[in-house]
Known about the structure:
It is found in: Cell membrane. The chain is mainly beta.
Amino acid sequence: ESDTASEISFQFNKHKKTPSIGSHSSDMASVSSVSGSVLSVYSGDFGSVDAQGTVEFALDYDEKNREFQVHVSQCRDLAVVDEKKGRSDPYVKTYLLPDKARMGKRKTSVKKRTVNPIYNEVLRYKIEKMVLLIQKLNLSVWHNDPLGRNSFLGEIEIDLASWDWSNKKLNWYPLKPRSLSAVNGVDHRGVMNLSIKYVPPGSLGKTLFHALRSPKNPPSGEVHIWVKDVKDLLQLRPSGVDSFVKCYVLPDTSKKSYQKTRVIKRDTNPVFNHTIVYDGFHTEDLKDACVELTVWDHEKLTNHFLGGIRLGLGTGLSYGISVDWMDSTQEEVAFWQEMMSAANEWIEGLLPLRSL
């Protein structure tokens, strides 16, 4: 069924179990999350002001240095966030979409106590022109709050494939409310075809090393994850994408919990056919654990996030602790619940990748 099978123990401090023969163990000293590695375009938006005003900027591509440049000049008539003080402290932030994680955000300095800020700053991206032309520029204006409770003031989105690159002059553009697609999370990143199975403690078909466990340790179950293929990945380069899948069972984000597939090169529809087995599961753990599968583009210096899924009950809690990674969608929750109710059976699913 698969080209490779990886096995790893899923263990909690409260169980105080010894490692299985031939497998790795990882005690979970703390609850942590890897979800903070990828931020939403609208992360930290606590404001409720209506977008208004205009922004002046120019776009250019430096062929010699292979650099995309956004010259942010100024804004006019921005919304007032603190009405009592008549104050806004605005700055401008840019992303290249759809893969905001790959290129990262750029932002200007903060101009305090003004709704007509002047920046005259250049935000730069090192990127090949051919890659740039399949991106969109998202430029947004924000009020900076000392406590991080920033407020969205407006945005503009530009399709760079249709941009007139001979136009290098500064021009004024009206700021618009958030795009509905971004607010509602409509951000197509592809779909993952996979199957999962839960093997409860004491089930038939256990291998010999399970039988050799110490009698002091109660038998535990296994979660099997069969990553088959992914379709319609983001094409980051003209040649395609070099992708692989990472897997963690949260709350464990240690290296011992980490598993991954091989890299499939130059293919936006990669076939992985890779099975991962986590043992050390008790039935009650299924309510508090979450299988996180993320797809990444592989490059020499760094890997770039493409999308992911989280399989769990999506309750927001893990062992009584509030966690942000227990955020499974309805489809993901239904998939996990079906696995829980059909022990020893493969459950097949086709789930959309999303930002985490």
